[in-house]
Amino acid sequence: MALLWVSVTVPSRIVSESVAHMSGVVRRVGGVTQVFRLQALFPLPEDRLPGQTIEITHGEVFTRPWVVDFILDLLDYRPGRDLAALRLVEPSCGAGAFVESIARRIGASCRSHGRDITEALGAVRAFDLLDRNVTAARDRVTAALIVDGWEAKPARRVATAWIRQGDYLLDEVHDAPVDVVVGNPPYLRLEDVPDSRMRAYRDACPTMIGRSDLYVGFFETALGTLAPGGRLGFICADRWMRNQYGRALRKLVTSRYSVEAVIGMHQVDAFDAQVCAYPAVTIVGNAPQRHAVAATASREFDAASAQQLATWMRAGTADAVAGDGFSAARLPHWFTGDDLWPAASPARLRMLEDLTDRFTALGDPESGVRVGIGVATGADAVFITDTGDLPVELDRLLPLAMVRDTKSGQLQWSGHYLVNPWDEEGKLVDLVRYPRLAAYLARHETQLRARHVGRRQPHRWYRTIDKVDATLTSQPKLLLADLKLTSEPVLDPGGHYPHHNLYFLTSDLWDLRILGGLLLSKVAEAFIDAYAVKMSGGTLRFQAQYLRRIPIPALGTMTDTDREALIDAFERRDAAAATQTALHVYGLATLPG
Fold first, then answer.
1. pTM of the full structure
2. Which of 189, 247, 343, 541 has the fewest CB atoms within 10 Å around its CB?
3. CB 299: neighbour CB atoms within 10 A?
4. For residue 277, which of 286, 287, 267, 285 has the smallest C-alpha distance?
5. How far is CA 106 from each of CA 32, 53, 88, 155, 191, rounded to the nearest angstrom?
6. Which tens digits make up the pLDDT trace of 390-446?
7. How many Cα atoms are found within 13 Å in the side-chain-facing hemisphere of 418?
8. Which of 17, 22, 21, 29 is nearest to 3 (CA)?
9. Distance CA 472, CA 452 (A)
10. Is there a contact between 491 and 411 (Cβ–Cβ < 8 Å)?
11. Contact 89, 75 (CB under 8 A)
């Protein structure tokens, strides 16, 4: 991928529509110059500012050579193999950062295997949309092969055969299986692509859902070309691993391919210029999932560190390593499904996988625990009141537990009620039987009908978004606020219905104080911290999908001492004591950082 710095001298009031479709930042300089930082996905409209003079300079930003070599090493694309017999594809070659190193490796491989360089004419296919990048990449490959001792004419012939102009996602026919796909795909939001091309991309790549980035399509297309045993290695933004638009790609990867390694490189100086791309090196194979490596690189990570990490990964012996500027762990397998992939240190990820394998998750029916969320009304001002004197029948009022009621660590009810339109069987009440409720709702009928649920079901206009479960009010339950810095479950002994900003856990099997002690611990919190999308200031979101991932031991396997210690820690709100007992229960010596 390349970034282009484009200086356009125009009056400050002018921002050309022909430029506006491209991704970038527009900054005013001296009131007369607009500076665009653009991604090289489409040919720049150099002639589309009528009456203006445009000077364009190309400060292209590519992957550093040592990072390229690191990725190729992880793919085992090394001169000791007969590389001319393999088929490698680079979907977006830019000016040739990857393909230059590939050329050197193929040249060395041909010499060691007694081949002429022209025997590697079919070994590489590299694509780029821009003619100038195709020219630059061909020149770069030609020069590298000549320096390596090959004749100029066959070197140029090879470079020309390898590199071509085209849209990898739309123009190319990917009918031949590929052994290796490697590169740095373009980062560009689909909404920054012209509409017709955006629709074509979505049609070609079903994983590009929502506000997807273009690189999602590159992953999908490239994976689909891999031969059995083939491997993909991209350095790319890792946002798809942890946001909504990456959901379909995550499902594709975990259902059909194997994640071999994910190396987070957010702090690494991996590119020729400073860019905020939150990159990770991701290695995916067309093979059954086995163990996977998770690694995190720090600012000190460099070529020597990369070689050290690659050597450890190839050795396949130790479960974890801490090197110069990185830490890594070998996980027994990768995470499944389309849920967010967790973000944590390699050692903590290994712990999460271990506990997930050894214990039953809260979301499993075998846990004996139900996880849910409180009632959403769609019109809190109508359905929630802080007085019991509303002109509705008393049996239509439910004491409502709010987030504010849990702040002290004990449930301190603030006196709010839910105006409940549901009967014991989960059906909307007949308003004829409740004249006072009918009169009250009628005063708000216009507002209630304007809600989405009111428009979709006009005959049920007075419903809350969620049904009310008549049995839940009286049940003991643990309540957890949606947004919290730490895990702080609060016990409702029964008598209150939770509002939609509260998640609840109920169980006929567990003493909820024991379960509360486990959830108060930093062991349980580690699952929320790893999976949840963090809000500003590090606030965690305790959503049901994350709570259901927390593993718990079988109640019968816990000693009386452990049970009593968890109850005591929960009642005293002592997270440190809860953590110490939880470590013992889970068979852990410490909680990895």
1. 0.78
2. 189
3. 10
4. 267
5. 50, 44, 11, 12, 39
6. 789 999 999 999 999 999 999 999 999 999 999 999 999 999 999 999 999 999 999
7. 28
8. 22
9. 26
10. yes
11. no
